[in-house]
Amino acid sequence: MLALSAAAFGIYILYVSAAQVRRLGSAEGWLYPAEPVIKAGFGLGAAAALYGVMALFVIPWMARESGLAALYMGLTAITAPMLSFALGKRFWIAKERLGARRPADMLRGYFGRGLSPTIWALASLCVYLPLLALAMTLAGNFASAMTDGAINRELGAVLFALLLALGTAPAGLAAGAAMGRVHGIIIIAGIAAIAAIMLSALGGSSGLAAALAELPNLRPWGSTGGRGGGAFSQAYAVAGFLRPFSGLTMAAGQGVLWTGALVFSVAAAFAGLLFLLSLPWLFANPDPRLLRRHSLGPAGLWMGLALFAAAAVLGIGGLVLNAPGTAPHGVAETAGAFTSAPVSNALAALAGGNGWKGSIIALTGLAALHAFAANLVLGLVATLSGFWTRRTAKPGGDQRELGFNRIAALTAIAGALLISLANPGDLPHWGGLAMAAGLQLCVPFAAICWWPALSGRAASLGLIAGLVTVLAVTPLGHGLFVALAGATWPVWPLGLHPALWGLGINLAVCFLITLVAPDRQGRSARDGFHRQILELGTNPEQADARTGGAWFLAALWIFFALGPGTVIGNDIFGNPGLAPSEWDFGVPSILAWQLLAWISGLALLVYLSRRTGLAQFNAKNIEAIKKSRPHQYIITSAASVFRKS
Question: Which pLDDT belongs to residue 244?
């Protein structure tokens, strides 16, 4: 039954890919599908690609290794759409105004020669390729676990790469969007079914409640040591806001040492990474209203529900059914354990040899992994394609561009497969480095939307400084800095994710260069461009709308849901050190606080979508914005937008 289900899924992928190849029409359709195709797949398709692996593998693994505090990462379903709302309207208008079809077009069109798209593209490769290799390793481990070793890790990774090559390389985003809705339905329905199976195995909701009550005894979690309101088990609490530690592991047997600062920094890293991974969809998006629908429904509601359900039921419930060892678990050990397949083994144990259960779990895992990996391939090709598009702008160039896109996709898949098969021990840390680098790569796009003072030179130097900082405070690069420069700082200083350290240095360098060496000539062109964005994005019927109050509420929500206020959730709904009968809602206080944050975050997203202008678009002003774009050629400087449009 499991083999038939996997085969049926593979046949469906190949059928959709072949159908989209016949309808492709031109090379542009590879990354910029026909409007009906992208509109049909944008919501659930983008949500499946961005959140599927997080929901089924990443967040449950984090909860399993570090307790309920990891469920704060389920709020990524709120923070990532929030970032999209902050940039979304202006990003869409800017890419239409610049006639941009891919990141290189937009960066070159706005910054001219000041920001080297080559630097940005090379940094992007360091994000996409390790994550793609990590996805293939996960796929291999998942196949091995589900078949009880009949398919080993290496063969599973090869088969997955073959499916990815045949299903993604021929038609690109056209195939991804066409099968996106099915991917999304399989993932959401599958996680719901897996949660139901797990609940049944635990003995129903009462069994889950018993598992939550027993959680501190399932492994030596360690104590918050009086931080965060009391001496609570780290299984149930955040250890204050800021907790300095000199290394990745404080003491044997402790978890990830979640603090409010770590929660905030990891959530910021996830949000930045997801924005970067959504770029292929954002550039192909023909209608800004799709972003609002995607953020509120498929992402905020359905994927948010899936993230919490999978983390609580699969992550915590899996500890009961598949007990962990007693080895120490700090940040380093937790990262290194990611590809040792604890979640895949828990899923296989849950199937228990039952054909139907195994089929449901296999289909859900395959859909999540395929959607995620295909999106990584698309992002990598979109990043690189700007370099050969201009060279093929001649008779016959369209077919050459299509060929280049396909070759780049196949090369990326083959390269990631080789990395996965080599099984480097640091691959999970490379994934963490990619996550931190992803946030740095968002800064130039934020500048295009909101920061006209930032020149291309400042953005380039800031990006380089941010990436170097990330490397200096991660396990992969810290030893090099110690050897070469005698670095005295620890990895993850103050318990902050490297992404936030990199962002801080990135922005500091950007501000410094802007003050010391302002680009006055380019500034006038950028100011004019931003005025046009403001004019095109203003609806006369809603001209009096103010966004300041909405973003104040967003900052307040972040403070309590992901910042210093997280410590309130430790015991506001009952002391976690007392018996479960003393808990207000029958669950640990931190879990109730997280669910309250998610529900209030959904309401906040609805309010933000109205205040930030995404709800104001109509067919008339969308068409007016599209007609305002310049002639269809690659723009070589921001000033040329105004001379030739």
Answer: 61
